[in-house]
Amino acid sequence: MAETVKNATVHNTKGDLFTSFDVDDFAVPHGKDEVWRYVPLRRLRGLHDGTFAEPIAPIIDVEIPESVEGATTQIVSRTDALVGRSGKAVDRVGAQAFTSAENALVLSFAAGSVNKTPVAIKVQGAGLDNTTFAHLVIDVEAGAEAVVDLRYTGTGTHADNVEFVIGDNAKLTVIVDASWNDDAVHMSGQTAILGRDATLRHSAAVFGGEVVRIVPRVKFTQPGGDAEMLGVYFADDGQFFEQRLLVDHAVPNCRSNVLYKGALQADPTSGKPEAHTAWIGDVLIRSNALGTDTYEANRNLVLTEGARADAVPNLEIETGEIAGAGHAATVGRFDDEQEFYLRSRGIPPEEARRLIVRGFFSEVIGRIPVAEIREELESRVAAELESLQAKKANA
């Protein structure tokens, strides 16, 4: 057996992490490891150290509307040439998911096909006491345009790898929606490679689950690529959500924009662990990535006591010949001036707070191109705020 490596071993840059699909290549994570330091490892139900319950087959359904053209699905072996093109796992859980998955599901969009209607991939939890693993590949061939709604529901313990392979002049819009029950555990490694003049619009929404960790990694392989990474999350008592991103500008004249917004609320008397979110955003601009234009931002709104948000933006720049690069992160409470303005116009305090929070999220939700999904996410924000109000009323 090969010697195991330290978790997230960096060689030259953060884009040069050790990768493998062999779980035995990785040491068991510990809380002192930098990339795991926020994660409550004891709550992962053994996904990180091999003590998980005997896995069963995942429950995955793909719905292709009749109006969608050029979309096909197939089940292939994990060793098939269609698998692994966007990169291998960067941590033990990702390698475990690959090793334990029986096969891979490939959703392909034929070259030149243009579809505005979403194709739905629905992953259903197999039950609280069950563990599932999966590998998904979404392949958008040259010149194609596609929209994918990847949704997780139910409960259980689930880990997966999701690949996005976007060909030359192709465009993929994907909404990753973690609509889990509040007792689910989900670990997801998501990798994307973009061809020449390719476009990725990746939106992540996390409102459900006990522990949810999503690790998107984007790499440009040819000039002209454009990636937008959006995210919204809302954590309550007992929930831990982590988003850990890397955008790897490895070639010239590519653009990326990252914007994540999160809110947290808690009831210190509930007896549950504190509401906790962590956002780590890494952008790497390699020495030959001339003309890069990138910006990343993370905004967090802490609504109550007993909640904690960690935000860590990082820029690694190896050349000064770029169009622009910047980052920002904030963790704060309500804007008192906004609340005062609304209340001065006769709006009750609780309604003013709801309006501020909904406006806070609207900048991200409004960019999602599917109206039904936008409306659903806005409804979830409203439901979270109503839950907070109900807790206060019963206190």
From TrEMBL:
Entries under InterPro entries matching the protein: Fe-S_cluster_assembly_SufBD, SUF_FeS_clus_asmbl_SufBD_core, SUF_FeS_clus_asmbl_SufBD_sf, SUF_FeS_clus_asmbl_SufD
Source domain of life: Bacteria
Family: Belongs to the iron-sulfur cluster assembly SufBD family.
Pfam families linked: SUFBD_core
Coiled-coil spans in chain: none
Start and end residues of each SUF system FeS cluster assembly SufBD core domain: 129-360
Lineage: Bacteria, Bacillati, Actinomycetota, Actinomycetes, Mycobacteriales
Protein name per its UniProtKB record: Fe-S cluster assembly protein SufD
